Amino acid sequence: MELSYHLDRGSLGPYSEEFIQQLIIKAFSEWNKVPFSTLSWSLGGYLNPADSLDGSLYYVGVPDDGINPVIFDSRGDLIDLLNGEGASDYLLGLAIPYYTTQGKIQEVEIIVNGKGLHGRSTEAQRLYATMLHEIGHISGLGHTQLLTEFAFDSNRGNNLFLPVMFPVEPVDLVSSNSLSLDDMSTLETLYPRPDFHQARGSIVGTVQRPWGDPVQGANVVAVNVNEPWVSIYATVSDLEIDQTGAFRFYGLTPGVYEIYMEPIWPMFKGTAGVGPFSATEAAPSFNNPVKKEYYNGERESGFINRDDPEDRIQLVVRQGETVTDIDLISNEEVEVPVREWSLY
Prior knowledge:
The protein is an alpha/beta fold.
């Protein structure tokens, strides 16, 4: 599947037209390198230069014009208009996909904010990471909270392991500039090549309450024990909103894995939400959330007095095969409102 995008003209803050255009072309090219994805982006042309808000609005909200524009919002006016006054003070970029009633992406837009750019230090790397992130969104990817602890430990070195689709910038403002295996496997799952499932492995299962009700919005993580910061993947239970609590991992590198579930962090809601059940604090992800707990096979019981959350078994994932019936049962405790979680 080949799609095209159209680039704006003109400089953006301290960056020349050539620099910013080449930066964006490079970001699209990185997504094109995902090995088992059929999605490919190509430069389709250029927009007419727009030095005013009205000029930019010509390309916004027009999902049937055949143009997927990348707009340079030099003063942040367009982002403020679309996301509220002051949004341009903290948003470096914005992605807007338009969907048909069948859920198919009809057209997309990316808006790049030039308001606060100054050209110093690691800013160009931040801008590039933002473009990778927004291209992920227009390709259909959501957020993931994998390796959240790395984003908030003030250690710049381990930020390179963070997925591009991490919801927010790390505290030291250094985001990953390369796609993680989780980023790539998610794209490959959406747009799989015919040989995708034969080249990788899969794990499928459910997350349930002890009494059998499905859990919506638990974060489920698969970790390759030999490459725990590299071959690590996440999904959300009941992602397809079918009331089953199902989770599915496709595109896993073959190896030995451990599986655990955890709550969605309360900070990841709304526009930074992880999965379809995190719109507000009242959403299912935060309603009697699961506690972190490893899958331990036949010893899953759902009651913490006889099911140690750290007890785990290892699963062998082989190329071209699917490990099935991995059913996690949440350990039930007294329900605690989200505002009282120890995560705050």
